[in-house]
């Protein structure tokens, strides 16, 4: 019965203050959405394997076995194997884009692929996740399914026509792409080659009729994923080492998939956390303001038999309910917004960005706990309200400071002095209001700084090292032919012949990718933020991330081996370049030739004339070469950054909502406190306008103060924070920009105007009421 | 003398309440002694500021006395925690404030029903009790109204209905007819008289002698002290106070 009484009160309270309920629910939903989205993007960016593995029910170990190897007994013979995927027939082949119908034929670049035979029925283990088009079907015209990142690299989508060719070139089959699919079986293309194409067994035999050229591919799902190495050894022992071709474990796949761009996720996570702090403050504000406003009602509840614990429980339950609704709304919003967000982030798929259940639980649990904690203190206070509060309200009191009197005597309008003084009569609420507004303002200022930085990057990508917008690999053309082709193109402003070479650094286990870009006489226009560009052989520039990895500074020497040839570089500058995971060492192409290191296959980095679209230019170059060169638009940062700006705008909206919530609470509280004062002020001879001004000022003074604190602190840290985040990402310091003064001015003005508006409505109403009260004596 | 009567429902001994605010001290109730028997209807009569409201607050556990003792049904209650008092109020004490004091968020019906629910009634019982009380007070049409929109006289009657919703053993009512017109005052008086006839114990603070005339006993309060405590002629108990003073005389005159 008592629970029912509590439920009645909660229902009545929610109905009476629907705006507050909406604000709390909205703030919680916004925070949950922001945190889930950032977790998803972070996950997709830094550990896409996990999501793909669960979505595809992947196998942890994949083996290529000699044809005819029996694996049927494997589960019984090797302990710890839970399930076996396959065996699937697999063969090496090449693929090329089909030429236009009626043209001379296919002359595009051939790319090596692995064809893997699967049936039309998707397997239970290692089940490719179709992302567009559809899976293989039993019809003879079923077509093939491409691994998604491979398809992206080939610029192929469902419906495209490909030509499959056996390795010896003896058979050629034209096929249609039925669909694209993701898999956790192997890393992303081109980190992992060859690219993967799933075909029906019949088609595989048609392309490669020789059984001896066909492998068997087997996936193992093992009980102890951490011990995959042991499992592999046991399997190899069981089957005989001669039958086992290649082996890959999930650890290798996971590692190869990582190293994507985590910047977006980090930015979102940072803002999400700040939004959570702001939300907690907003909820503390709303709830404690509400408790102050409802003192009489709460006292009444105590009178009719509510215990302090019941009042506490009731308020907590009410807010838990609102938070719960907010969390559900946040989950739905995140679900809806994720595809939109990921649509703008190349290379992160929905499956990869699946937020692990543990993270989601932490986010939801953390948000709920934060809301309950934010409610707990005001609710506890509410529980301690004496029943007599129902009739004996204790209006706040304070004295007029000497300063206030002096200012008033000096002729400052009394409305200003009284309003400003009233703002601080209730100290704790005033402090809560200020922090509740300052923190969103701080975050918004930082957000505007991020926005300005992104704007700058979009306007001049060269500043983050993205001078070249197209790379051209000669493909089947000779270098001089490609050179002529590029020179003939009027849209190309400059072309730099470049090489990519792997080097081994003493003490490092993995090789690093180095770039010979242009020559030391004509270096590629990297964005140098420290030191200078390479102007002599053996001079090099490097990104912050690489300097960190090698533990060297600008000015020092670093020695590395190119296929057995040692080269010592003098690091003369630090550059910003987001490619290759931000780890780049670049030098003049002539250095390698001078030292006698073998120069690997080259490519051209093209700087286009201003205003030329990279995608269009790349396509035109490919067409001009008759499909013989492979021209790729460098992923345009604008594509990704546009969506970051979208996400930022969303977060700024959430923060503005938390600020507004705080503001409305402050003005409601002001209205209540001043209902009586308003009448007195009027009786003292203040005009109605002055009374309104005094009450409006009460909230506005607090807003002014918080905006000054928030925006000031935001300006102080924005540039530093952005540089710190970009340093984490390997870009190094130097890209942070302060918020644009126009945007900041708009934000500040909006905050103060909202404060005045929020209190103007209640103020004029309370003036009327105050006079009414004076008359009735109540 | 404490607990000497098993019929004594409420007893207060040397009850004192001192308020301190901004360094100055005000004593609202000074050493008040009073008792109320089960089923008795007593009136605390006094001018504004005589400490009537504070006395009732103390007896209802809404405020803690500075010193003195309160016994309810033979149990000492002045030292109880807020929570224990709250539990006690659910069934034992219905409290009606001067100046209404209704929960603004809730409709008239909800105000009454929540009190009944807190007293342990089922939803159906609560609704029935609400209907019964509002009808008796002439407010049946206002069940869905918001209290703040009602005139003071109607708010007062809703507050009385709320105080009686849980069928409390003791009704403490502070100025239940303050601000009511004659018709409304009569309705309240009728309700109180009927409740009293059904055995309801009532302690009522008022400055309205007409309301007091229905009581068994009149306790007059002057400056926080009990100045007079006298049963009215047909009351079952003998005179215990120091003598009949003006307030009681006026009540008697009104009865004649």
Would you mind describing this structure in some detail?
The complex is a heterodimer of chains A (778) and B (256). With 778 residues, chain A is an alpha+beta fold. Helices cover 52% and strands 18% of the residues of chain A. Chain A has 22 helices and 20 strands. In chain A, strands 11, 12, 13, 14, 15, 16, 17, 18, 19 and 20 form a ten-stranded mixed beta sheet that branches. In chain A, a hairpin with a 2-residue loop joins strand 16 (557-562) and strand 17. The two termini of chain A are 34 Å apart. With 256 residues, chain B is an alpha/beta fold. Chain B is 34% helix and 27% strand. Chain B has helices at residues 52-59, 82-91, 108-118, 123-136, 152-164, 182-197, 209-212, 246-255, and strands at residues 8-21, 24-37, 41-45, 67-72, 75-76, 93-96, 170-174, 201-206, 217-222, 225-231. Chain B has a six-stranded mixed beta sheet, sandwiched between helices. A four-stranded antiparallel beta sheet of chain B has the order 2-1-4-5, covered by helices on one side. In chain B, helix 3 (108-118) crosses helix 4 (123-136) and helix 3 runs parallel beside helix 5 (152-164). Chain B is globular. Chain B starts with 7 loop residues before the first strand and ends with a helix. In chain B, 50% of the residues are buried. Mean pLDDT of chain B is 81; it is low at 235-245.
Which class best fits the helix and strand makeup of chain A?
alpha+beta
Gyration radius from CA atoms of chain A, angstroms: 33 Å
Give the CA-CA distance, first to last residue of chain A: 34 Å
Calculate the mean pLDDT score of chain B and round it.
81
Please describe the biggest sheet of chain A, giving its number of strands, its sense, and whether it closes into a barrel: 10 strands, mixed
Task: Determine the structural class of chain B based on helices, strands and strand pairing.
Answer: alpha/beta
Q: Care to count the β-strands of chain B?
A: 10
């Amino acid at each position: 019965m008592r629970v029912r009484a509590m439920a009645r009160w909660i229902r009545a309270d929610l109905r009476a203050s629907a705006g507050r309920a909406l604000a709390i629910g909205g703030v919680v939903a916004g925070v949950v959405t922001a945190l889930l989205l950032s977790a998803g993007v972070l996950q997709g960016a830094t550990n896409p394997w996990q999501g793909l593995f669960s979505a595809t029910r992947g196998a942890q170990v994949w083996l290529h076995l000699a044809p005819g190897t029996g694996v049927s007994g494997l589960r019984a013979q090797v302990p710890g194997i839970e399930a076996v995927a396959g065996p699937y027939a697999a063969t090496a082949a090449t693929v090329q884009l089909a030429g236009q119908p009626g043209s001379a034929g296919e002359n595009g670049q051939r790319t090596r692929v692995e064809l893997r035979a699967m049936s039309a029925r998707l397997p239970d283990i290692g089940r490719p996740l179709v992302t567009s088009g559809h899976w293989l079907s039993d019809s003879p015209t079923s077509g093939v399914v491409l691994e998604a990142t491979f398809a992206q690299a080939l610029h192929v989508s469902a419906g495209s026509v490909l030509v499959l060719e056996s390795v010896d070139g003896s058979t050629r089959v034209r096929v249609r792409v039925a669909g694209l699919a993701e898999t956790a079986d192997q890393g992303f293309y081109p980190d992992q080659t060859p690219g993967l194409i799933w075909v029906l067994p019949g088609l595989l035999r048609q392309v490669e009729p020789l059984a001896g050229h066909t492998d068997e591919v087997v996936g193992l799902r093992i009980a102890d994923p951490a011990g995959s190495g042991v499992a592999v050894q046991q399997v190899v022992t069981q089957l005989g080492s001669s039958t086992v071709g290649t082996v890959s474990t999930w650890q290798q796949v996971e590692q190869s998939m990582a190293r994507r761009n985590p910047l977006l996720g980090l930015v979102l996570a940072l803002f999400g956390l700040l939004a959570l702090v702001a939300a907690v403050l907003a909820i503390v504000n709303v709830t404690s303001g509400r408790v102050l406003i409802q003192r009489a009602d709460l006292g009444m509840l105590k009178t009719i038999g509510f215990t302090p614990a019941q009042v506490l429980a009731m308020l907590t339950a009410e807010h838990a309910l609102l938070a719960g609704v907010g969390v559900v709304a946040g989950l739905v919003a995140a679900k809806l917004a994720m595809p939109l967000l990921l649509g703008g982030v190349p290379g992160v798929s929905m499956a990869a960005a699946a937020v692990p259940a543990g993270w989601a639980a932490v986010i939801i649990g953390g948000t709920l706990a934060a809301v309950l904690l934010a409610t707990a203190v005001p609710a506890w206070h509410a529980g301690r309200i004496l029943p007599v509060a129902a009739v004996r309200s204790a209006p706040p009191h304070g004295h007029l400071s000497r300063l206030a009197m002096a200012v008033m005597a000096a002729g400052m309008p009394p409305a200003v002095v009284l309003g400003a003084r009233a703002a601080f009569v209730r100290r704790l609420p005033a402090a809560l209001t200020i922090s509740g507004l300052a923190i969103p303002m701080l975050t918004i200022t930082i957000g505007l700084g991020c926005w300005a930085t992104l704007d700058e990057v979009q306007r001049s990508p060269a500043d983050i090292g993205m001078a070249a917008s197209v790379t051209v690999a000669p493909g089947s053309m000779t270098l001089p032919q490609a050179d002529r082709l590029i020179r003939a193109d009027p849209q190309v402003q400059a072309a730099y012949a470049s090489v990519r070479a792997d080097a081994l650094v003493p003490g490092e286990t993995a090789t690093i990718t180095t770039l010979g870009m242009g020559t030391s006489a004509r270096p590629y226009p990297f964005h140098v933020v420290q030191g200078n560009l390479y102007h002599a052989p053996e001079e090099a520039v490097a990104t912050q991330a690489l300097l960190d990895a090698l533990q060297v500074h600008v000015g020092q020497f670093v020695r590395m081996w190119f296929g057995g040839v040692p080269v010592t570089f003098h690091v003369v500058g630090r550059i910003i370049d987001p490619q290759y995971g931000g780890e780049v060492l670049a030098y003049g192409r002539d250095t390698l030739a001078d030292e006698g290191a073998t120069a690997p296959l080259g490519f051209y980095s093209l700087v286009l004339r201003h205003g030329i679209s990279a995608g269009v230019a790349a396509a035109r170059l490919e067409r001009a070469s008759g499909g013989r060169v492979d021209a790729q638009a460098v992923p345009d940062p604008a594509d990704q950054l546009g969506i970051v700006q979208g996400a930022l705008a969303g977060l700024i909206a959430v923060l503005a909502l938390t600020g507004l919530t705080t503001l409305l609470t402050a003005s409601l509280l002001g209205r209540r406190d001043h209902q009586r004062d308003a009448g007195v002020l009027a009786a003292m001879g203040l005009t109605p306008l002055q009374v309104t001004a005094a009450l409006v000022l009460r909230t506005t003074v607090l807003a002014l103060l918080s905006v000054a604190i928030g925006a000031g602190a935001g300006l102080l840290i924005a540039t530093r924070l952005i540089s710190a985040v970009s340093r984490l990402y390997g870009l190094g310091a130097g890209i942070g920009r302060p918020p644009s003064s126009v945007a900041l001015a708009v934000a500040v003005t909006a905050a103060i105007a909202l404060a005045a508006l929020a209190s103007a409505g209640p103020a004029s109403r309370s003036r009327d009421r105050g006079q009414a009260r004076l008359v009735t004596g109540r | 003398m404490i607990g000497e009567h098993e019929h004594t429902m409420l007893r207060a001994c040397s009850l004192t309440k001192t308020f301190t605010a901004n360094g100055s001290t005000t004593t609202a109730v000074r050493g008040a002694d009073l008792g109320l028997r089960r089923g008795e209807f007593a009136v605390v009569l006094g001018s504004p500021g005589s400490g009537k409201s504070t006395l009732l607050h103390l007896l209802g556990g809404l405020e803690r006395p500075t010193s003195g003792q309160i016994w309810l049904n033979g149990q000492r209650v002045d030292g109880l925690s807020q929570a224990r008092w709250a539990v006690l109020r659910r069934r034992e004490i219905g409290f009606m404030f001067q100046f209404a004091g209704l929960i603004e968020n809730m409709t008239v019906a909800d105000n009454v029903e929540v009190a009944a629910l807190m007293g342990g009634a089922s939803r159906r019982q609560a609704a029935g009790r609400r209907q019964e009380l509002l009808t008796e007070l002439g407010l049946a049409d206002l069940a869905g109204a918001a209290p703040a929109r009602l005139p003071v006289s109607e708010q007062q009657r809703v507050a009385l209905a709320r105080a009686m919703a849980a069928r409390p053993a003791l009704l403490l009512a502070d100025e239940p007819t303050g601000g009511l017109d004659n018709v409304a005052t009569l309705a309240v008086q009728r309700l109180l008289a009927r409740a009293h006839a059904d055995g309801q114990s009532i302690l009522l603070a008022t400055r309205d002698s007409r309301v007091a005339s229905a009581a068994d006993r009149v306790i007059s309060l002057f400056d926080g002290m009990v100045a007079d405590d006298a049963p009215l002629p047909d009351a079952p108990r003998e005179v215990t106070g120091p003598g009949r003073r003006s307030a009681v005389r006026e009540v008697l005159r009104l009865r004649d």
